[in-house]
Design a protein that fits this description.
Helix content is 36%, strand content 11%. By secondary structure, it is an alpha/beta fold. The strands form 3 sheets. Strands 5-6-3-9-10-4-11 form a 7-stranded mixed beta sheet, with helices on both faces. β7 and β8 form a beta hairpin.
């Protein structure tokens, strides 16, 4: 490669260009790569994050009292049977941006795009299953509805069609052949890039050589992932006794039906150990739902901006309760199903349920609805977090506890530097 004064250099192989880090050979750079130490986990652990885009009516989502003896609030009554394996948190948020844009911070802490904690967990657990993580939704959500983010702050695409999710979990022979071809092709591209890197290393400074070694370790990580996928692609996919509907219910008016099917498939994904990390964004548009033979008075988005009108709040709550009812069916499956090691899925699966929207009527993203269920954690209470306390807790503190529960070595996340272990362990 000819040395120039460009701030960015490229390697090219098999018609693919890969940008190099800033190198002092071409221009000064202070970039440093860090390696995350891995921690083994003795017992299988799983994570499911489920976010409802248009949120809930807070007064009917949070209990009036705290502790074990709280009265189940109206919105959560469909899952009252799970109260012993459920914790309710009020008063938690990220102290961040309001509005739909701020929703994107729900499990990452930053609306501008930052790694979401599910992906840190996926990095820890991903080599144990066919898929490190899977991101799901129903149909095509509104543009600001983003949930999972990579370490580079890029929103991960979501599977919005039940049939596509099903085929991802239970592939046919022809699918395997096509995927195998693509994986082998991509692997050959990486081989070419790494060979070219060896030539480049001989013409740069010692400091640049260190940077290149760090940089290409990430390329080798990609290669390892490809090798893993090549191993998995030839392993038989699990069988499923599940019948999909003839057509995907992805239109907004039938989004509740899509939601139920996605939950069914999520339970199958966990039971077959196809993945141990799932995220599910439940979108909301202006659709007018019919719930238990009653057509609601306005579109879902309009109901979320209820203006404190009692009739609109009642209909908005009906939609919220339907979301929770479908969550309950999913939880029932986790409680009655066991994994390959005969562990109850409810004991090995931590479910985070809530929303990045606090008060949808005013677009206020404080006091976010937050439930934590299962996972073998200590449950059964409503915890009201005092934001005026000398050391107030953030939602990121709860995520730090979860990260540590999954063996991820982090001591700060989303602006939080503590944890909430005393509530869960």
């Amino acid at each position: 490669m000819k040395q120039t004064g460009d701030r960015r250099a490229f390697l090219k192989g098999s018609s693919v260009s890969l940008a190099l880090p800033m190198l002092e050979t071409f221009a000064p750079s202070r970039a440093k790569a860090s390696m995350q130490a891995e921690e083994s986990i003795d017992r299988p652990k799983r994570l499911v994050c489920i976010g409802v885009y248009l949120g809930f009516y807070q007064r009917d989502f949070f209990p009036a009292t705290t502790g074990h003896q709280y009265e189940m609030p109206p919105t959560l009554r469909p899952i009252a049977g799970h109260r012993d394996t459920m914790s309710i948190f009020s008063g938690l948020d990220h102290r961040g941006r309001n509005g739909h844009e701020g929703w994107r911070a729900w499990i990452s802490g930053k609306a501008t795009g930052s790694v979401s904690f599910d992906q840190l967990v996926a990095d820890q657990l991903g080599d144990q299953t066919r898929y490190a993580s899977l991101q799901l939704t129903c149909g095509s959500p509104p543009g600001d509805a983003k949930l999972s983010f990579t370490k580079e702050g890029v929103a991960l695409p979501m599977i919005g069609r039940p049939s596509v999710f099903y085929k991802t979990l239970f592939r046919s022979g022809s699918d395997k052949d096509r995927i195998s071809y693509l994986l082998k092709t991509n692997r050959s591209v990486l081989d070419g890039l790494i060979e070219e890197a060896k030539t480049l290393e001989r013409s740069v400074t010692a400091d640049d050589r260190e940077k290149l070694n760090e940089y290409f370790s990430s390329v080798r990580d990609v290669e390892k992932k490809l090798q893993k996928q090549l191993l998995w692609v030839n392993k038989p996919t699990p069988r499923a006794d599940y019948t999909l509907p003839e057509f995907d219910p992805v239109a907004p008016d039938v989004a509740l039906e899509c939601e139920s099917i996605m939950y069914d498939l999520m339970a199958l994904a966990l039971k077959t150990d196809s993945t141990r990390v799932l995220t599910f964004l439940i979108p909301g548009w202006s659709q007018v739902f019919t719930i238990r033979d009653r057509r609601l008075s306005a579109g879902y988005h309009s109901l979320s901006h209820h203006g404190n009108e009692a009739a609109k709040i009642a209909d908005y709550n009906l939609v919220g309760m339907e979301h929770v009812r479908r969550l309950g069916a999913f939880l029932d499956k986790l409680r009655t199903s066991r994994d390959a090691d005969n562990n109850p899925l409810m004991d090995t699966t931590t479910v985070l349920y809530g929303s990045g929207m606090g008060d949808s009527n005013t677009h206020d993203n404080t006091n976010l609805p937050t439930l934590l269920l299962g996972g073998g954690l200590r449950h059964g209470q409503h915890h009201r977090i005092d934001k005026q306390a000398p050391t107030p807790r953030r939602l990121g503190d709860l995520y730090l506890s979860l990260l540590q529960h999954f063996g991820v070595r982090e001591d700060q996340f989303a602006g939080a530097t503590s944890n909430m272990n005393e509530y869960l362990l």
